[in-house]
Structures are given as structure tokens and as C-alpha cells.
Amino acid sequence: xxxxxxFRISAAAAPYIGAxxxxxxxxxxxxxxxxxPPADFVLLVYYLCHDQDPEVKxxxxxxxxxxxxxxxxxxxxxxxxxxxxxxxxVQLHGKNPDLRPIxxxxxxxxxxxxxxxxxxGGTASAPTPAAVASVSTPEYGSSPRRAHSETPExxxxxxxxxxxxxxxxxxxxxEYQSKYQMAQAMGVSDKIKMxxxxxxxxxxxxxxxxxxxxxxxxxxxxxxxxSEVLSIAKSAVGNDEIMRVICSxxxxxxxxxxxxxxxxxxxxxxxxxxxxxxxxxxxxLAQLAKSKNVNSAIASQARRILMSKKDSR
Length: 313
Prior knowledge:
Blueprint: E1 4-7, H1 23-30, H2 38-48, H3 54-65, H4 69-76, H5 83-93, H6 100-105, H7 111-119, H8 129-133, E2 154-157, H9 173-184, H10 188-197, H11 200-206, H12 212-219, H13 226-234, H14 240-248, H15 256-264, H16 270-277, H17 282-290, H18 296-311
Antiparallel strand pairs: 1-2
């Protein structure tokens, strides 16, 4: 499953697209300090939300989140708006009562975004006349049309990070419940996409999904943190593939707590668990040797290692 999404970009936006462009130039664009037609402007900022530079990325997300309804209405008037951009706008602006009905009727709306709107009341009435009258965005350029001269395609690597920066913080319970409701309305393909690119709440939901394709996708999310992996390694996961992925990740298994959790978890493939036993300190080996809560082969391995250590002294 590829994380690459390809867009056509205008000649006007091209100077800000690509890691080879000057950082300050990309940062200025991410902060919204460029004059472009609305469609080009939103595409550019969306692209910069996936920039490898953390400050550029944060600035772009802030800009995308702060876009006014007038500009967004111009962008949403394009029926060919890319579904990924539409998803991001729904994620950031889906609670706006003037935009919800426009989002809901857009032909590019994905089932995941539709589910999000349903939770937020996406079947709301038409936008207010005042909101429609406010459609004017001189600071970004007045025309929603894209420039006719286009550069070669530009690719966004969505596996490098989703639109909203993720932080290793406790899960917001209210946010979790809202997303859980959305997940119930999603098809498998949308769940897999969300599992691969979603934030911490989405990962926590999708890792527990009964469909093994979905839960396996969640553990492969590139933003998965070690604290999340440790929690998963300690849990009664129902998908053996999750444990195999954890065991095969060289960075994760450098963590002694994760190795211990894998040894203790009955879902860990036995060859991997036995390999990790040898890395545990003597105190933990002694506990394993007496434990009745682990596979007998693991307890026996712990006893053999302890005896070998004693004989070598």
C-alpha cells in the first residue's frame, strides 16, 4: 500500500514545492505569506503540511487550520478537488456549520470524511447568507482558477506524517469516543488508510479492530511511538502479525521494557520470545524461571541461562 499521493501543481506554486527549495521560502509559504489563487494556495499549504522540516510542517498545519470560510468555499466549488485535500479540510473544518453541508455534498468526499461529518452533524442546513456573502479572499488572490501552465507532478509522502502533527501524549477520551463512532461507519479500505496515517487516537482504535488487515496496518503506521508499542506488547492482542511486526523492528526491540513485554506475552512467536529471554537481567530471569504465566519453554530457557551464568562464575 503506497503512501505516495501525486498532484498537478501550477507554475505559480512550483517555486515552493520540493525539499530542494530554500527552507525560508518554504517557511514563508507555509505561513501563508504568498499570493496565489485559492485552489493553488490550499494545495501548496497541504503539500507543506508533509514537509520534512518540523517548523515548516507545523506552520503549514496552522495555516490550513486557520483558513477562513470564504476561501474554503471557493476551493470547495471545484468538484475535482483531490479527496486527500478534502479529507484534510473536513478534519480541520468539519465542525463549521457553514461548511458542513458543502463538505457533505462534495463528489470527492470519502466514506471516512463522510463518517466524520455525520458525527459532527454533517447533514446541517445550507450555509447562512452572511457566510456566502463573505466569499472574498484578496490576500490569497481573487481567482479560484489554477494557472494553465503546470509543472511536472509533485508527490506527497503521506506516510511521512498526516496533516495534524502527532505527539506522544495521553489520549483525549472525548476525541477517542468521537473517532470510535466514525470508525464504525468506515469500510475496510478506509480503516486501513486511517490505520496507516491516523493520529494516536486512530491508531489506538484501529489496533483493536477485528479485521487483521486493519490492525496490522495500524502497527505499521510510521508515527507509532515506543510507548504505544510497549502498551501493545503488554496487551492481549488478537493478531499474531502485530507481534511479528514488533519483533522485527530493530529500533523497538532495543527497548528493554518492550523485550520483556514480548517475552511475557503469549502471542509473541516463541522463537522471538526465546531470543529475547537471553537479553534479560538476572533478576527478571529468576522471575521467569519460577513463573507459571509464561510458556514452559520460556521458563526452561530462563533456568538454563541462570545455571550457565552460575557455572561460569
